[in-house]
Design a protein that fits this description.
Blueprint: H1 4-10, H2 17-28, H3 33-44, H4 55-62, H5 68-87, H6 114-120, H7 125-137, H8 141-144, E1 152-155, E2 158-163, E3 172-175, H9 178-185, H10 198-211, H11 220-233, H12 238-245, H13 250-253, H14 263-269
Helix pairs in contact: 2-3, 7-11, 11-12
């Protein structure tokens, strides 16, 4: 947790008391300092006061982004912010209601090959632990920064990993892979185990990967590896894969369902 002085420094450019009050509330909910600062910056950029901001004002802001993926991030963050602000009674309307989410081009997953994974496992202990959480649990870098030892829990069916405040601020629980159990049972600490900024996690892991001879890999590629393996291990079950990956919709999961070149021929031959 951070001090009121640190919070004030990060949010000193809040343009109104509403945003400042919201920042204090976010702190009380346990959000990290950089996340709060990002939300404050985005709200500050709206071209009208929060009490009167319109859908056109929101569209004007997200229109400043050059990529549809960035526009989606802006809009999703504003939706979450105005939902919070309304629930807190700080505003009485939500200008994001009814706005269409910008389309995004489906990307291709970038799973890491087995031989590269074997090399990556030789990196030092801290970055190896991050790797296992990304590879075996599909954690995003920001989720790694929030992991606590107590998030590993014994459930009815075995060990499970609780993932608080994932994407879109949703909590989730997934089965814990044995390697994840090993990592988290061997650490003893109160609070987050790696309380860094997510960019630090991504950058440092990439540096260590290059240090052991694996280049061109991002930390997020570990999540792609997890999703690809989960899809295959589930017998190509999109719904199971969606739940394990904590995707908001099955459309996000479908990028892992690319068909092999020979499959259409096998299907037609069996008709």
């Amino acid at each position: 947790m951070f001090t009121n002085g640190e919070l004030e420094k990060k949010t000193q450019h809040a343009v109104c008391d509403i945003i400042a009050t919201y920042a204090v509330w976010l702190q009380a909910q346990g959000y990290d300092l950089d996340t709060i600062a990002g939300k404050v910056r985005l709200l500050n950029r709206l071209p009208a006061p929060l009490e009167t901001v319109s859908a056109d004002d929101v569209l004007a802001l997200i229109g400043q982004a050059t990529k549809n993926s960035s526009k989606r991030i802006y809009l999703n963050n504003l939706r979450l912010a105005f939902k919070d602000l309304k629930n807190l009674g700080l505003v009485h309307h939500d200008p994001t209601l009814g706005l269409r989410t910008p389309p995004t081009q489906r990307g291709k997953p970038r799973p890491i090959p087995v031989d590269e994974l074997a090399v990556l496992l030789t990196m030092r202990e801290r970055e190896r632990a991050w790797m296992i959480l990304g590879w075996r649990a599909g954690l995003r870098a920001v989720e790694v920064t929030r992991v606590e030892a107590e998030h590993l829990e014994r459930g009815v069916h075995g060990w499970q990993l609780r993932i608080p405040r994932g994407k879109n601020d949703k909590d989730a629980t997934i089965p814990a892979h044995p390697q994840v159990v090993e990592v988290l049972r061997n650490v003893h600490s109160d609070g987050p185990l790696w309380p860094f900024h997510s960019r630090y996690i991504s950058r440092k892991w990439r540096e260590m990967a290059e240090g052991v001879g694996v280049t061109g890999r991002r930390f997020h590629d570990l999540r792609h590896t997890f999703a690809t393996n989960a899809y295959k291990a589930s017998g190509n079950d999109l719904l199971v894969t969606k739940e394990l990956c904590r995707h908001a919709s099955v459309q996000s999961t479908q990028i892992y369902a690319g068909i092999e070149d020979e499959r259409p021929f096998e299907v037609v031959a069996g008709l």
